[in-house]
Amino acid sequence: GLVLFAGNIISVLMFLSPVAIFWRIIKHRSTEDFDSLPYVCTLLNSSLWTYYGIIKSGELLVATVNGFGIVVEIIYILLFIIYAPTELKVKTAILVGILDVCFLAAAVLVTQLALQGETRIDAVGFLGAGLNIVMYSSPLAIIRTVVTTKSVEYMPFFLSFFFFLNGGTWALYALLVHDYILLVPNGTGFLLGAAQLVLYAIYRRTSNPCKNVSGVVEEGREHEALISA
């Protein structure tokens, strides 16, 4: 019960972690070197787990928490598109169309038309677990910028931190209940989050202190699979 409660709180914080970044984007009227990929991946992940929570009895909390995530991620993506340069607007719109519309629609249609009962639920669960790994690794998209500029200004610190914390919490829960399907994506998230924090620690010392911002937090999220256990 305590681990489940902690996981829910961490999930909400993970969804809200990019607020500082988007306040900066609005204030500067520019997306600068921030990347939209983490938000696009998190929207897909949240959408799939909302679907999972709807089709599986007793998992209303999964649908509710991830439904909140959907709303938040849509707001982030719309703001990103508004303030991004034309090339990045197009790239983001294409990613949203492919992942958050076409892929999600295909997943829902295939599982509804071709699968039934527990088989459908298990298929959505496996797909969600795979997408969790993609979501956890999405902040790594900025790694080239960090290494090239030797600055962590655009490194999503809080996103990486919450991925690390979230992955660790749910990996522990998975071990306690012997749920290895749950353990794999969250154990991976824990390791990826740790790697990102190490990278941040290495380059933070070489970053321009005047340029560093606490808003190196980029969103992500979640994990919701874990709650579903």
Automatic annotation (TrEMBL):
One GO term describing the cellular component: membrane
Keywords: Membrane, Repeat, Sugar transport, Transmembrane, Transmembrane helix, Transport
TM segment ranges: 6-25, 37-54, 60-82, 94-115, 121-142, 154-176, 182-203
Single GO molecular function: sugar transmembrane transporter activity
Gene Ontology annotations of biological process type: protein homooligomerization
Domain of life: Eukaryota
Subcellular location: Endomembrane system
InterPro entries (alphabetical): SWEET, SWEET_rpt
Family according to the record: Belongs to the SWEET sugar transporter family.
Protein name according to UniProt: Bidirectional sugar transporter SWEET17
